[in-house]
Amino acid sequence: MGETQPRAQWRRWLGLLVLVLIVAAVAGWAQSYYSKTFFYLDDVKYFKYEDSGSGTVEYRALFGRGSPVYVHKYESDRVIEAEGERYQIHGKEGMSGEWEPYAVVYPDGTEFRVEPFGQDGFQVFDQAGEWVLPPAVIQVGLGNKISDPDSPRYFPADIAAASDEAFHQPNGSVGFFLLAVALFIFNWFSFRYEAFQRFMFHISPSNLMVSDPEPSDFYFFMCKVGGIFGMGFSLWIFFAHAL
């Protein structure tokens, strides 16, 4: 008995240390992941890589996808440099006092008018004033896409969105991340700890008016089953909505 208690305490402290390290690692990852913003060009997700401090910002995609994209900032204009080509974005001061793009000029001189629409979105019009929609894309096989060969490689709204960080999208959803973590912890306790299972049993409204209720073996079994499905559901929320 003299060796059992110290060993149990050592295991508890070790488990607590591991838990603290896991929480710290997850918190560090979440802070790094959700503090980033991104934009899409040609279906490639770009993040800020380096700010030169002289008005030029470099963006890169993960895992070496795509080529680096450079955004050159001027007083009322932006220039997007991608694949060796330069796209000009003329802007103006919006109603909120912030810079807003209003025209995108392609390397061949083709110009599109872009107008803010909704939350961080744009409507696009050609030189004749006709409304322009994103080109249709057909999925062929795994990871292969075919788009309209007559349409520009980069849609004007995507170039306008890339021109300023105010229009970049948040990287994932912090709310869904916290929801997934909370659900996973709750269902892990429901699966693993009998004391928690008993606590949930006794606070159930159906048992509040019963004198000295006791959970059955079937209840404990269903707690474990529900915990497994609940953890699976929390993982689905994380991968489908939090990332």
Compose a concise summary of this entry:
The protein is α+β, with helices and mostly antiparallel strands and 243 residues long. The protein is 40% helix and 29% strand. The chain starts with a helix and ends with a helix.
Q: How many helical stretches?
A: 6
Which series of helices and strands comes N to C? HEEEEEEEEEEEEHEHHHH
Major pleated sheet: 11 strands, antiparallel
Task: Determine the mean pLDDT.
Answer: 85
Terminal-residue CA separation: 49 Å
The multimeric state of the shown protein is single chain
Poorly predicted regions: none
Total beta strands: 13
Key terms:
243 residues; two-stranded antiparallel ribbon; 13 strands; elongated; 6 helices; 11-stranded antiparallel beta sheet
Question: What does this entry look like structurally?
Answer:
This protein is of the alpha+beta class and 243 residues long. It has an eleven-stranded antiparallel beta sheet, with helices on one face. A two-stranded antiparallel sheet has the order 11-12. Helix 3 runs antiparallel to helix 6. The protein starts with a helix and ends with a helix. The model has no long low-confidence stretch (mean pLDDT 85).
